[in-house]
Write a structure and sequence with these properties.
It is found in: Cell inner membrane; Cell membrane. The chain is mostly helical. The protein is built from 14 helices and no strands. The longest helix is centred in the N-terminal third of the chain and has 34 residues.
């Protein structure tokens, strides 16, 4: 039994060395910007750059927009499929996995082709249109993860009973989704949101080909021109990703449908309750 227990521990140690070794070496290299001394000068240089702050702010805003748009798209779709169209669930799951099969470069060239200057809807001719295409691209890339998170959350709660109760009190389908379904899958949406944010923040292909000042293209440009700052950026991006993963794990441990605070039912659901 001791030998059997020793093998998993040895594998874990080897795996930790394999994955943490390059990270430690990168962190050590990022501290050697000043010759002969270990300093945080590379991090200070990155954080004091206006270009870095602008790229981070732009990508963060686009990622947050992608989270909102993705939630508004996925939650009603997954809810309706589970409630009314269960036979189409396998088809919808297959469609949601398509972004894992189609390369992002194909996706962005499709955007340019369909929404170019000669199309009926020329989104590529304006800054607002290009930013909208970027957000749609982020939503598409994160669709497999957002859909899985929301669909698992809907599988835990009894959406049929909740829908019947809301409709018996006079709620429309739209109001049921907004005031009943969304609050009960909040933790699932948050889990999908963190994955969406992590994917969108460092995305390079779509952001670069659409010529947007995002964080991904900024990291590539810094890596071409400087030595120590890219290492600092890599450590910062890695730390940020792990923070998102930790937050995702925290929210994922809460069962979808259970909330820390009691839910107050809307007035239209209380007016007939005696």
């Amino acid at each position: 039994m001791k030998r059997i227990a020793f093998v998993p521990a040895a594998v874990a140690v080897v795996a930790a060395i394999f994955f943490l070794g390059p990270l430690v070496a990168t962190f050590d290299f990022s501290l050697r910007m000043v010759r002969g001394d270990l300093t945080l000068e590379a991090y200070r240089s990155v954080l004091s750059s206006e270009v870095f702050l602008g790229a981070l702010a732009f990508s963060s805003a686009a990622s947050l927009a992608a989270i909102v748009l993705g939630a508004l798209l996925v939650v009603p779709t997954a809810y309706w499929v589970r409630l009314k169209l269960p036979r189409l669930r396998s088809l919808v799951e297959f469609v949601s996995l398509m972004p894992l099969i189609i390369p992002p470069v194909v996706l962005v060239f499709g955007f340019i082709r369909v929404y170019g200057s000669s199309s009926v809807l020329p989104l590529t001719t304006s800054e607002v249109g290009i930013n909208l295409l970027l957000v749609i691209g982020y939503v598409t890339l994160s669709l497999p993860y957002m859909f899985r998170a929301v669909d698992n959350g809907l599988g835990v709660i009894d959406i049929v009973s909740l829908t019947e109760a809301a409709e018996s009190l006079g709620a429309s389908k739209l109001r049921t989704i907004a005031t009943v379904i969304f609050p009960n899958v909040r933790s699932a949406i948050v889990s999908g949101a963190f994955l969406t944010f992590s994917i969108s923040l460092g995305e390079f292909v779509i952001t670069s080909l659409l010529n947007r000042p995002g964080f991904g293209p900024y990291m590539v440009r810094v890596g071409q021109d400087q030595a120590y700052q890219p290492a600092a950026l890599a450590i910062m991006a890695f730390a940020f990703t792990w923070v998102c993963m930790a937050l995702m794990e925290f929210f994922a441990t809460q069962r979808p449908g259970t909330l820390k605070v009691p839910i107050r039912f809307p007035k239209f659901m209380r007016r007939n309750v005696t």
